[in-house]
Each structure stands twice: as C-alpha cells, then as structure tokens.
Specification:
67 residues; mainly alpha
Length: 67
C-alpha cells in the first residue's frame, strides 16, 4: 500500500479546516477527561513548548532551504 508515499500540496485555506477539526477533537477530549489531565499539566505544557520550538525550527530551516 503506497498510501504514505503519495505527495499532496495543501493551501493555507485547506489547512484551516484540518486544524479546526483537530482542535475541536482536543477540546472535546480535554473537557471530557479534564479531571484526569489536571494531574499532568506541567508535562503537557513542557511537551507543547518543546514541540512548538521544534516545529518553528523545522519551518524556518525549510524556508531558508527554499530560497
């Protein structure tokens, strides 16, 4: 199955729909299990910060390589 080898290009407007779908799922999960996740606020925030920095680094390096 070559599902993971297919390359597509997405516009920014198309990503908005995908991001809204993912965000709404996160909000639903967060509200449903809020007592469970309240114990893990610090690790979740740390994971968020690390992944945001990592994503920004990858994005900026990709922009630099495209020039």
């Amino acid at each position: 199955m070559n599902f993971f080898k297919v390359k597509t290009s997405w516009s920014n407007a198309e990503f908005i729909v995908l991001k809204l779908a993912i965000a709404s799922a996160y909000i639903f999960i967060g509200t449903y299990f809020h007592e469970f996740f309240s114990q893990y606020y610090l690790p979740i925030i740390m994971l968020f910060v690390i992944t945001v920095i990592w994503s920004l680094y990858l994005w900026l390096s990709k922009m630099k390589d495209d020039k």
